[in-house]
Amino acid sequence: MADSNMPADRTGTAQVDRSPEDRARRRKRIRGLIGGWGVVVALFLLWQTLTYRGLIALAAEWQFNTFGRYYPSLTYILLAALIASPVLWLLRGRTAQSEPAVAPALLPGLAFIRTIIGVGAGCFAACLVVLIAMVSLPDDQGVPERIVLGTPAAANPPRTGPTILVGTVVRDRTAGLNQELLVARRTIRFAPLIGPGSGREAIRFFVEIGPNEDAATLRPDGLRQGVLRRHGLPGELEKLFRYAGYDLAQPYYTLYASTAGLRWPYRVAAGQLAIVGLICLLAAGLLHLRRERLRRRILQQRVNAA
Question: What is the DSSP letter of 196?
Answer without folding.
Answer: T
